[in-house]
Amino acid sequence: MNQSRITMLNILGMVGMAVVLLIGLIAQVTLNELPCPLCLLQRAGFALVMFGFMLNVVYGIKQRHYGVVLLGAIFGAAAALRQISLHVIPGTPPYGSAILGYHYYTWSFILCSATILAVAILLLLRNEGEGEFRHRFGVAGKVACWFAMMVMALNVISTFIECGPFQCPDNPVSYWLLSII
Amino acid sequence: MNGCFSVFLINPGKEYLVMMTLIFLLVLVAMVMAYFGKGRLSCVVFSVSLALSLYWFHHHATDALNILL
């Protein structure tokens, strides 16, 4: 597979992570389901993955950029697995709504595992003409980067509204900023 | 310290806690830096955000699970 196609896959990966974070935000607002600290850490994992894909989109495909993606995905999967282990105990109610039968944290673990698998496949792909390829940061990449940065800014704002400059409550029931104004 | 608008907070266990919003803010800063060509600096900011994330993960994942094995 040539480099431009691999760059396009990285753009799709970055947009995919941004869409996942955006769906989380939409569900948070529309269903009034406040994310718990472990949920926020899973979002942080997705954000770190998104940053790794962005490095590939902006600077070209590099092994260390995939390393950033893998670190983010492993972190997100670990946070999700911790939350799954909390709710798998008999008699423990789940946290948040279910989508297609799975709760957010289960989906988070599946998506992080899928990201690790996808990066493994991308690393296995042979890069034709890797030496002489000149990376071009095109319009599609720039639009995707701005979209990702916009979603990230929304996450900063929503987390600050929920937790403020403090530790997030273990079982959040109201927004910190809305409760003080 | 609940009324304190500081980044660093002290909980009853006298452990210093850094607000979780900072993780997302640092990732956003790293992304903006990467976009505007500050690649090395963005990786430094990424490292700080990853360290902060690990700190919070350690904080939230060290409670004993209530299960019998």
Automatic annotation (TrEMBL), chain A:
One of its GO terms (biological process) is protein folding. Its main location: membrane. It comes from Halomonas cupida. This is Disulfide bond formation protein DsbB. The lineage of its organism: Bacteria, Pseudomonadati, Pseudomonadota, Gammaproteobacteria, Oceanospirillales. It is found in: Membrane. GO terms for cellular component: membrane. InterPro entries: DiS_bond_form_DsbB/BdbC, DsbB-like_sf. The chain crosses the membrane at residues 7-28, 40-59, 66-84, 104-125, 137-161. It comes from the Bacteria. GO terms for molecular function: protein-disulfide reductase activity. Keywords: Membrane, Transmembrane, Transmembrane helix. It is a multi-pass membrane protein.
